[in-house]
Structures are given as structure tokens and as C-alpha cells.
Amino acid sequence: MRFPTPGRLHRALAPRLLVGALLAPSLALGQSAILEGERFHPEVGTHGMVATSHFLASEVAHEVLAEGGNAVDAAVTAGFALAVTQPRSGNIGGGGFMLISDEASGEVIAIDYRETAPAGATETMFQDEDGNAVAEWSRFTHRAAGVPGTVAGLALALEEYGTLSLAEALAPAIRLAEEGFTVPQRFVDGVAEAGERLTRWDATRAMFYKEDGSPYAVGETFRQPDLAATLQRIAEQGAREFYEGETAELIVAEMQRHDGLITREDLAGYRPVIREPSHGTYRGHDIYAMSPPSSGGAHIVQMLNILEAYDIGAMGFGAADTMHLMAEAMKRAYADRAEYLGDTDFVEVPLDGITSEGYADALRAGIAIDRATPSDEIAAGDPAPFESNETTHFSIADDDGLAVSNTYTINFSYGSGIAVEGAGFLLNNEMDDFSAKPGVPNAYGLIGGEANRIEPGKRMLSSMTPTIVKRDGENYLITGSPGGSRIITTTLQVVMNVIDHGMNIQSAVSAPRLHHQWLPDELRIEAGFSPDTLSLLEARGHTLRQQSAMGAAQSIVIDDGRFYGGADPRRATSSAMGL
Ligand code: DON
Fold it and tell me: Cys bridge to 471: 56, 395, 476, 487, which one at CB 3.0-4.6 A?
């Protein structure tokens, strides 16, 4: 088996991309036919593909496929390995969503392993006595943590759709935690940036710094013995160990020492849920993406419905018309997100309306081609009449028609910054994804309302958008991204780059991105778009803001019997490996 060099796919990429060179010659050609003459080349495989944000996780997932495991086996193995190799965002102290598509049965299912609010949570728990939302409380205290779902979610995926035992899927992660791995530059930079938060708590400091208190340097070995022991207990006793065994005790003790809310009962009561993904169509493709408690699926389908009526391919990638229309669709979707989206186990969400073509027609009628609609002229629409009734993303596909799209998170890089003493993992600060107070933005500037208020046992609204696109009943594009509020728009752009602009998957994930989320009323732009185009957008009334890299969309396209992997150059450790 090959051992990939970190970031080998894109070390040579200049940060500013030349947009023109990304364009593919013809949409009529398949992915394999458009590779010659391209500037960006995907990894190619004939029997499967893994694309993750860390080369060590890609390596162990690749090994599982090579030894005959299926895509779910590889995904669960990668999921646990990332918790070790990318402790800032890969996680067992957090939660997420996994989409699984099985071509043979035609089924696409979603595993919801999002965190839940503890039973002791209250609607106003992050407000002071004057009713002001206190960001510090929802982000950096023990109360910021939702009940973690990852261990239960990955175990459920394996049980239902995998062939490996949990112990087998955990073995590489345990080895990486025990033996350690060589620290890359990104690790060192991350710890330096978050230093203040990581030194606040003894257990976190012990996890991320050497015994003498100094930070790790590039090339040194980073070992996580407490995490190895936690994973080993789960391997020996099963997923319930995390929720009812010694790990649960360690979490509860941590909570009790620091006024946290998670109890033994909260942990024992946690259950992942198998859900139906959101579904729509786009130019003859079937789009499946995560349903509530994520907003991602509803809004990617909604935006694609709005955009399908325009000839985006003819307008061209990076053209002012294309970018303008995308921004207008984004604003309208995010306005609805703020009003309507929440956990459907607790609130009614007009999902059929939001994802209906009739509603998209109504929203599109309000879009002018020559003028940006100011966000204060956009309120949430009325989907009801149409109602017929540092996060980590990885994509994996096998040769038997099974594809997995997984996004999971502890919310911020390093979550709350609080490690569970003796257990070796960070707690999420996912409670900040609830609306601490209606109308008050969360860390990503996202506004939530009543639908996303805090309630015991409820799942906080997410933007995570693991997505699988099928063509003629076959898995075609597997994608998704981290990036907070930018997740949905990043995923949208990968889909459009492949379907509208005919890009190969490496070009599609590398191309510069834009983002609008209704409020604040600004169009965020990565480096790489033409200054002339940006002037045209300003002339239409868009307020532009240059933004550093958005998202990290590790993606796969399957076409003509080949697997194409696109590792996102925005993460230095990204790696796609075909077999
Ligand atoms: O669930 C959500 O939407 C957020 N907690 C995701 C956070 C995230 O993507 C941070 N990473 N870049």
C-alpha cells in the first residue's frame, strides 16, 4: 500500500487560482474525458476512493477497502482515526451526520448522530439576568457541550451497514493514539493560534502540550495515551461503554466539577436516529443531503431549485451573472433558515414547501438580474402554501455501489477547549448552535428563532450538509464540507461546478468560492475571482468582503466506472487515495 505524502495533491497549487483555467471544455464529456489539458487533476481509482482531511485517516480507510471492507467499514475506521489525527475537529466528544447510498437497493439513508441538549438545559440558560445572550457561556464553558453522538452514530453505521466489528474499526485509531504520529505544521499552527483556550484547563493543556509545558514542534511525535485507553475500552465493551461505562463516569465527573449539565441519564439516553435525507433534483440528477436537524439538505435543494431555471453553464463559472444569481438564491435560503429550521422531533418545519419547485418559482420572481436585493428587503418567505404535506467532512466509495458522505464536528476548532480529564478528548461547544436568544446571531452570524430555541433533549440546528448526488440511479458525486454557515454554500458550489460547469472533481473543489448568508448583508469572496467581475457585482449593489479560505470539501465523482477523488487544497493535510 502506498503511503501518501501530506498534501501531495496540491502542494504546488498557488493560493490564487486562475479561474479561466478551471473551466472544462464541454459538459457532454464525462469526467475521464476532461482530464487532459486540465490544470488540476483528481486522484483516480478503478475500485474505490477515499477522500478525507487527513492523510493518515485516508491511509487507514484505504487499507480497509483494499482488504475487502466496504465503504461504511472504511468510513467508520476513518471517523475514529480522524478523532486521533485531527483532535481539533475530528471527534468522539461531538456529533454529526452520515449519508449512506446503496446502489443495489436504491436506498439513501441518513444517520443523525447530532448532539442533544442535556435534560437540565433551559431556553434562557445562556442569557444573563438582563436577558442578554452571553457568548462565553454557550461557547467556552462545560454547559456549552451537548450530549456527544459520534460513538453511537459510527457504531450504528457499522452495525447496520458494515462488515467489520467495532474493535476492528477502532484498531487503527487506537494504534495512532498509542504510538503517536508525526506532528505536521498545521497541528503546530493550530495549537499556537488557540493557545489561550488550550492552556485554560489542565486536562486540555496536558493533552496538547509536552510534559514540560512546551508546545510540540513539527516532526515530533504526538501521543494520546488517555484517548487510546478510552478507545480501547469502547473496542472491548462496545459503544455503550462511552454512554454507560467508565468513559461516561469521566464525562459526568468533569461536568460535576465544573457546573456542567450532562448527567449519567443524559448519556445513557442518547440515541442516534436513522432518517430520510432531503431530496431534490437538479438538471436530471438526484440530490440527497442531510435533513433536519441539519438545515443543509433543505437549503441546498432550495437553492438548486431556484438556480435550475437559469442557464448557469452558459453564463460561465465566475461570471458576474452567475455569482449574482447564486448570491440572491443564498440570501433567500438563509432568511428561511433563520425563521423555520429546527429539530423536526420538536418543531414543525415546512420542509416540503421549502424544497418545492413552486416555492422556488415564487422566490425567483423576486430576483432581479441587474440589482442585488438588500437583505433588509428579504424576510423569510412563505413556504406554507407549497407545503404538500473545524468540522470534518470525508467521502468514501467502494466498488459495490456503496457510498458514504460524512460530516462531523465539535463545532469550533478544539470545541469548547475543554478536555474530559482522564479520557483524552475534547468536549464540543455545540450548544452555541441553538439560538441563545431569538434574533441574536451564533458564532457564525447565523440567526435563529423559536424553531431553534433550546429545549431538553433537542438537537441544535446544524448546517452540515453531507451530500450524495445520483445520476441514472448510480452514485455520481459524494461531497460535503466543514465551515460553519459556509458549509451549505460550499457544498452547493461543488455540486454546481461539476454539474453546471463540467469541472473535474479536483477543479471543482479547488475553484474559488463565494458565500452570502442573508445577514450580514455582504457577499464573501475568496481570492481568485476576476477584479472586473467583482466590480460588476459591486455595481449591482453587492457589498463584497474578501475572505480567507472557506470550507474543505473532500469529494468523489464516480464516472465511466472510475473513481475520481478531489482533496481540498484548503487543508494542508487533505488526501484522496484511489484503489
Ligand atoms: O453544525 C454546524 O453547523 C456547526 N456546528 C459546524 C461548525 C463548523 O463547521 C466549524 N468548522 N469549520
Answer: 476
